[in-house]
Amino acid sequence: MHKTKPVKIGSVTIGNGNPVAVQSMTKTDSRDLKSTLAQIRRLEELGCEIIRVSIPDTLAAENIKSLKKQIHIPLVADIHYDYRLAVQSINNGADKIRINPGNIGSNEKLKLVVNAAKNRNIPIRIGLNSGSLPKSLNSIKSQETKFIKSAIDYIRLFESWDFDKTVISLKSTDVNTTISAYRAISKITRYPLHLGITESGPPGYGTVKSSIGIGILLNEGIGDTIRVSLTSEPEEEVKTAYQILQVLNLRSLPYEIISCPTCSRCKTQLVDIVKKLESELQKRIAVKKIKKYNKPVKIAVMGCVVNGPGEAKHVDIGIAGGTNTGLLFMRGKPIKKIPPSRWVEEILNQFDKLVCHT
Ligand code: SF4
User: Fold this and answer.
1) Which of 87, 126, 187, 257 has the smallest number of CB atoms closer than 10 Å to its CB?
2) Are 310 and 181 members of one domain?
3) Count of C-beta atoms within a 10 Å radius of residue 215
4) Of all atoms in ligand 1, which is nearest to the CA of residue 266?
């Protein structure tokens, strides 16, 4: 387990063994207050715990004031190139800023940003990406070495200015490079680490890439907050992040579906049933604001008697399919037979009862 120091981002503390926090980034034009606010609200409902907003100009930086009044999760301002936007964002109420120090211009400008963050007592993420490492490191061949050298140089520079509310990220599009870079930095620093595979692509391949990269590191006890970067709606990023954490038993969603892949023995439209069930469960999480669970309600939906009763018996709610019917199990006990057309409705009823009483 990589022991990190706690860093407070608004109401959320990361590091020091706190739960790995889920974050995402808005994809609206951040100068458009209305659509940005609406997107953050949707992400809040899905359990997003920290939201990052890119700040390309002064209007976007100005909008931070209004956003802060209307959202409930910490806001991170993401700034490139212009130190004045970073200072403006800090002064307008950002709970943290993310910069790639190498593109801010000069150490004098960087120091102004660090001092502004120090004055407001907020953290800075040194966010290094494989696509924008300092040109001065071009002679170094190994991407991992470039990441580490760059991160250490900035950590020391910040410390020389008496700033220690630092969070680090070293994101590459290559999973193996990302993993080795984070492993190496975790041996050197105790600042919390923000994990991600940058520009990982669309859902599907990008989900697999992110899950493997982030998952391997988390499984080694490395990482304090995660963002899954997908070419998709940010809702997909939050959903995937929680799924990664649930698979590793680090965080819990309200539910886990165990379902068989189906084969010729399956006599129901199991694929459609499970799709509908998952979509209905997701709606419930959003609408009922079900976010915090010690453990998920496990739901098994199985196609036939080969593995059906065995799996259905060992979960909270289980259905073992037959021909035009299914046997419902509740915490190991067979309860009743129900037709496939009513499986989703019945499972949701039982889920609601368990959720209210657990
Ligand atoms: Fe096939 Fe039955 Fe196994 Fe599902 S549980 S994959 S239907 S054998």
Assistant:
1) 187
2) no
3) 18
4) 7
Looking at the fold, whether 226 and 287 belong to one and the same domain comes out as no
Q: In angstroms, what is the span from residue 205 Cα to ligand 1's centroid?
A: 27
pTM above 0.85, yes or no: yes
Full pLDDT tens readout for the chain, 358 residues: 788 999 999 999 999 999 999 999 999 999 999 999 999 999 998 889 999 999 999 999 999 999 999 999 999 999 999 999 999 999 999 999 999 998 998 999 999 999 999 999 999 999 998 877 777 788 888 888 999 999 999 999 999 999 999 999 999 999 999 999 999 999 999 999 999 999 889 999 999 999 999 999 999 999 999 999 999 999 999 999 999 999 999 998 889 999 999 999 999 999 999 999 999 998 887 654 444 556 789 999 999 988 888 888 899 999 999 999 999 999 999 999 999 999 999 999 999 888 865 4
Claim to verify: residue 265 and residue 208 sit in the same structural domain: no
Q: What single string gives the DSSP state of each residue in 105-145?
A: --HHHHHHHHHHHHHHT--EEEEEEGGG--GGGTT---HHH
Last residue of a domain, one of 217, 247, 277: 247
Q: Identify residue 217 by its one-letter amino acid code.
A: L
Boundaries of domain holding 94: 7-247
Ligand 1 pocket list (CB less than 6 A): 260-263, 265-266, 302-304, 306-308
Q: Are residues 186 and 270 in the same domain?
A: no
Residue that has been written with the tokens 């929680």 in this structure: 242
Pocket test for ligand 1, best of 263, 311, 315 (most atoms within 8 A of CB): 263
Is 274 inside a domain boundary? yes
